[in-house]
Every structure is written in structure tokens, then in C-alpha cells.
Amino acid sequence: MPLATLVDGALTLLPSAPAARQLRHAYDAAQQALGLHTWEPAPILSWPQWLDHLWSEAVVSGIETRLLLNEAQEHTLWLDVITAKQTETTLNSADALANLAQQAWSLANAYNAADRLRAFANTHDARTFATWAESFTQTCDRNAYLSRATLEATLQHHIEARTLEAPPNLTLIGFTNLTPAQSALLETLRNTNTLITEQTLGTTTNPGAPDLSHLEIGVSTHHHLHTAPTEPEELRTLSTYLRTFLQQHPTSTIAVLLTDPDDAPTLEATFREILAPELQPITADLSSTPWEFVSGTPLTAQPLISVALDLAHWAQSPLDLNKVSALLLSPYLGTSTERDASARFDANVLRKARLLRPELDLRTLLRLAQTSPDTPTWLHPLHHFLTTTGNLETPRTFADWSELLRSLIATTNWPNNTEARPLTSLEFQATQAWDSVLDQLATLDFRGRRVPYSTFLHTLDRQINSAAFTPPSNNAPIQILTPSAAQGLTFDALILTRATDTNYPAAERTNPLLGFGLQATLDMPGTSQPRATERAHQAFTQLLASAPNILFTYTPQTTDGEQRLSPLIASLNLPELPQPLSEPTTAIAEDILEDTTPLPALTSPHVQGGARVLQLQAACGFQAFAEIRLQASHLDTKDLGFDALESGNLLHRTMDKFWERIESHQALSQLSAEARTAILTNAIDATIDHKLVLESQWDKAYIDLQKDRLLNLLQHWIDLELKREPFRVVARETKQLIHIGPLELTVRLDRLDAVKDGFFLVDYKTGYASNPANWDSERPDDPQLPLYSLLHESGELHGLAFAKIRPGRDMKWLGYQDEPGLIPGKNVVDLETRLSDWHTTLTILAENFASGDASVNPKDYPATCTHCAQRLLCRLNPQALLTASDTEDSDTESEAQANG
Q1: Alpha carbons 263 and 419: distance in angstroms, whole number
Q2: Where are the alpha helices (DSSP H) in 522-610?
Q3: Residues in the chain with pLDDT values less than 50
Q4: Which of 328, 397, 743, 874 has a 20 to 30 Å separation from 463 between CA atoms?
Q5: What rounded mean pLDDT belongs to the chain?
Q6: CA separation for the pair 882, 101 (Å, rounded)
Q7: What would the CATH number be for the domain defined by 222-296+478-570?
Q8: Where along the chain do its domains lie?
Q9: At 667, phi and psi to the nearest 5?
Q10: Count of C-beta atoms within a 10 Å radius of residue 731
Q11: What is the distance in angstroms between the CA of the first residue and the CA of the last residue of the chain?
Q12: In the prediction, which pLDDT does 3 show?
């Protein structure tokens, strides 16, 4: 029977809005196929939409004057009731209890049990909820409010009283488990001569009902199972299945049922890789993807909304440092022309602030901005608004707070919708959703109260976090939704993911606020395992009838343990999905061309980078070429407070000032422990940057902690200095020019000691990896001190060592000496031979760099490549890279910074 006859003169109801939308779309497509240009909209509604329609008729006709509470209003009432009645401390917040109470109230009314709560209240929680429910009902009656949970019963009363007109015909499609409240309303309609036809997918309970079989595409049924080796591979397989199916059936519609909603971000990333690689760039417009989330995604997942919410919080209190950085880099604030300036401010000012501040307020950021010409312009109007118009201290109504927040955010040019950067369709819909949330908050003025900004902000957080972002459907071929949301929908193919016994079917649970006896008597969910199994079988049967092609996927073994296939699916004994899924690819012939073009000569023998030039050349010629000649470096990250580089520089400067005051081993030996501590303390105080603005006691405590840590560390180190043979410090933090092969390298010596008949090189180290073994071999890992040794004539240098200044057992001298006593240990070697070998090795490395040897030849592949910033350019296999800890060595970086 044609689809037109299904809806001709009969109101059709479906369980959900997506199901109703799908049937309306099918109806419209059928009218277009008939060549029609205009037609009456089909009377197809979801059950909630129909209830709203009946309620509107009741209000318009004047038989109802009560206020139908929305979700936010009802939550507020429950919150007030719970706060007023709560006398005991609980682990749950008042908001969580209000949510639980709303759920219990909705369940009780769905089973027509609201008047039996007290009779079955045989537990403390049930008695407490009964008291809350009585108070909630009294509040609603007193103020002419109506809870949405009681809407079916209210409409039933009006239809029975004949004050509300019943529809003559009604068709129900896809309803498998009606609640008692729904059944009672339908029974009342039957008693008023409404002809009701109930229909499931592909079957009918009425011989005269229309046939829906034409809505199913295809007549054969193909069900398969895919057992994936890993969970990521499971998502990749279903993505490949989708691609293959759509290639063979371009006009089909496929559902992906997520039993675990947390899979949504990973699934979308996999879709972008396999189904639509053109959407991989971060700037790609995702407004029209070949998939859509029918059940919606969290509103807070939209970057534009997160920015607005962070601004709302920042107006009241300091914001997490990472969020402040995100605001500075956001494309939704300020103007497009200042984006680069904001990035420079973030990198050069905010990220280089050395105090340990996990949070930052607007006033402090503006103080930092005074030192930079790259200050984002939107900061100033925002601050001006907050200090003049935007008074956050005086309580206001929710509507006033909503309008004030709109004005506050507008000062930042949010959402930056200009000709230079127009909003995408998805971004525009997100702004509409934001306005909708603020409008809903304004409805909370139904109680006529003024609230502080903190209360408004808390309510805004709750509404935003609970809101789902569901843009208007673009009828994408791939529909992503939960199994429960698929009720009443039909597809050409369907995929059920993570089909394990813990995920599908979803477990039924009782409500803790309702007496178990009441729930068991009314056969509520979770009270009877046989009944739960029966309902699961009914839902599964409907699922099987919703598509002719179905794929179930699961992973038997995960990192968390073994998983079992759902018993419902296992009972079908499905065949495994045939392989391969994708079409065979044609091998592409490759031409290998040898790159014989020489690199241009160095413009000057003086190369910036110091010893790091030779260190990189020893590690990999391409890495040295990219980082030194092309200046292709990685983006520095910034930790809170002093990072490893800054802490290392602080130690270097302190030791410089200490030896400036002491000068020799003899002078050190003549000092008492108290005097040494005093000199160290003065050196540390002089080293700390006094330009640092200490905003709070937190800042002062952090600086004091850094001073105490450094003092304790250096006190132990000075004890090791005392165990050496006499020496005199003759050079500190001195820059020198070294000629090595065709290169001239500027280096900085940490310290040079004069010892008997010569000199001793000292290099301060604070990193884990400092080891003299890294000086040797044809490709040394750390050629810094061997390079410094070339500054001296033959016979002048008697030793060189790392002063490894670290807490505990790691604190030690590490190096070589040509006679014992210069440093503790038995590390006496033939230094002249070593110096000759180092000179030869370093000269070869310098010649290779100068000649343009940029070959991709890592010393220890793949370990050398693990933290290399150039590995995306050199085209070595990234899958072979090892996972290794990032060892920080501030000294090499410090030297490179000083020489660069």
C-alpha cells in the first residue's frame, strides 16, 4: 500500500523524534517521486511532540492555566525541596539528589504510582523521597505548576471529561513496551471512539492496517559477526564495512549503534580517516559530513561553547592556565588580524612567566600584557566591562544574568563571525544552542527570585553539561545513535558495536528512591530477571526487523580482560564477516631518483649552535641540517613554574656568583659551614630575578621553596668540592670561539680551574643522562666537553669532568683526569691520547656538516628518532619508534640558547 494512505487522515505516532523525522522524510520523498511540488505536511509526530500538541490545545482553549514546567524549572523545585528537607549529610550533591528525585518521580508517574509512594516506603530512602514528593506536589498545587511527569494523566483527565477533543484516528508505529500511563491514555482514547492501529516494523496487529514493507530496502536478510583482535581494529573494520556498503549502495542509509557512548570521539576520528580523508585537516568544515549523531553530542564538546563558558567563569575567578592559553589562541575571540599577535603573546609572555601559577585571573594577565606589544585587544574591553558595567556583586534575576553574560562575551567579539572568517553551519548552530540555554535559564525567574552570579554560573554549568548538541538533520547516509534511540527506525544496514554481554542488552536497574515492593508489584524495570529477559528479546526482535543487513562487532580480548559476546547475538550462530571488505588496490609503480644535487655551501664558517651542531651531526646528518641550517625546531612546551632549563640556569648563575666570591679551594676550606651557607644564600638571592612580580602568598611560597631546594642541593655539593686537591677558579661562564675543521663555533665554559701545572674543565650538569661514556666513539652522543678541551695547548689540560649536581646518590664527579686527586675517583686515563682522538672525531663531524652531509642516518634507529622533531620530514617508518622517557638535560639547551 502506498505510503500516502498511511498518513491520509490519520495521526501517526512514533516513539522518538528521530523515528518521526525519518517517516516524515520518507513521506516527503514519496510526494516528490509522484512529481508533486507542494503537499500538506504529514501528521507524523513523536509521542512527546504529540503530548505537547495536546497541551497547547488545552492552554489555547483556556481549560489549562497552569505552568508546564520545563526540565530546568522542575530541577530547581526539586533542589529547593531537597535543600529545605535535608537534615543529614550525604555523599551526593544536592544537584545529584535532585536529578535522582526527578527520575524517581517520572518513573512513579509513568506507572501511575505517585499516590502509593508513602504506602510502600519501607526503607529510609523511600520514606525520604515520599516526603520530598509530598512537598513537591504541594508546591506545584499551591503555585499552579504542572510537572511534565504528570502530563499523560492530566491529558487523560481532560479527554475523559470531554474538555479536550480526541483524534478520530491514531496509528502507533514501533512501540514495543508502553508504560501504564501511556496505555491508560490510549485506553481512554479508545473509549471515546478513537480508532487506534498499533503496528510494529514489518508486522501489524490490525488486518486493515497499511503495509510498511515497502519502507525496507531489499528483501533478503544478511546478518554477520565480526570478531576483532583489538578495539581500535573493531572501529576500523566497521568503517571499512560502511565504505564498501555505500560504494555498492550509494543511496542507502546505515545505522551505527554505539553501546558505549564514550566511543563517539574515537569513532568520528576513524570515520574522518577512512570514510572522508578530505575532512582530516583541522580547518575542515564538519557541517556536512556523511555521518551524523542522531542522539546528539555533548554541547560542551563544541569548542565555541567551551570558549564562552570559560569566559563566563573567568569573569568571576581565576582560570586554569591551560584554559587561559586556549582563550588567547581561540579563533572565536578578537579579530582575525591579531591571531598571530595573540600566539606570540601566549608563547613569549604567558608561557615564559616563571612563577608556579596553576590559575590566572584577568587582572594579572593584563599586568603581564603591559610588557608586550602583542597584547590581544579583546582583553581590554572585557576588563573595562567588568570594572564598569558588569557588576557581579549585586544579585540579579536569571534573565538579567543571561543578558549580562551575552553583553560580557560580546566585548570579546565572540563568536568572531566576519567576512574574513564566517562561521560554519555547525558553529552557527552551536551559537543557537548557546542562546537556547541562556533563554532556558531565563525561565527560572518563574519563582521571582534574585540570585548571586555564582548561583547563576553553577546553574549554567549544569544546563550546559547536561545539554546535547543536535543540529538539524541533513539526512546523512550514516546515522550514529544509541540502541534505545533506534526504536521505531528502519535502515538499509545496521552495525551494533561492542556487542558484549556487559553492553548489550543494557542492564535494567531499580530506582533507589522507590520502595522495592512498589517497583516489583508494578513490574518496573530491574525487579524481575525473567521480565527483563523478555523485554530484551522484544527489543532485539525489533532491532533485527529494522534492517535487512546487520553487522555485530566485538573484541574478545582487551587490556581490561576477556569479553564475551552478547547471549542474544550468540544464539543466532552468525557467520563471520567475509574478507576482504575493501576493493583490491592496484599497485603503483614507483620511480627511484637518486638525489645528487649538492647543498649550497655555508655562507660563513661561523655557525650558531655551539657543541649542539656536532652533537646533531653525530646523531643524524638530516637532523643537523634541518635544525641548524633550516632552523626547523620543535615547539617548546612550558611547565608550571621553573622548568628544567630555568632550574638549570638558576643553578649555573648561583655557582657563578658563589665562586666569584670564594675564588679558590683554599678560601673555601677556611670558611665555616655557617659562612658557606650564608654566602650560598646571598648568591641565590642575587640570582633570583627581582623583576618577578609576586602577586600573592602563593607566589612568595613558591620562590621560597625554590631557594630552599637550591640551597640544600648546593650545600651537599660544596662538601664534594672540599674533597678535591687545591684549585683556583680562573674562568666562569666564559664565551670562547673554537675552530674545528672548517667551522667556527661559539661555546660557553661553565668553569675553568687552575690546578698544579695546568687546568681542569668543569661543566655543571643537572640531568639524568650525564655520562663520560657519551664522549667517546666515532659518533659521540655528547661532544660538549671534548670540544671545550680543544681550547688548550698540548699538556695544559689535566682533566675534565661533569659536576653532576643532583639529589642523593646521583650527586658525583664524572670525568677523566691524568693524575689522581683532581677529582674523587679512580678515573685516571691517558688524557693526551683521548684529546687527540676527540680532535680527529670532531673534525670529521665538522667537515661532514660543512660539506652538506644531510643523509638520513640515525645513529641508533629508532631510539635516536624517538624525540626528534624532524621525524615527520625524514620519512623513516614512524611505527618503529620506541617509547622512551624524555630525559631533560638543561645544560646543553642552556648552552645552545646562550650561543644561539
Answers
A1: 36
A2: 529-545, 567-570
A3: 1-2, 4-5, 7, 203-220, 583-584, 882-900
A4: 328
A5: 87
A6: 52
A7: 3.40.50.300
A8: 3-64+154-215, 70-146, 222-296+478-570, 299-469, 598-900
A9: -65, -35
A10: 16
A11: 81
A12: 54
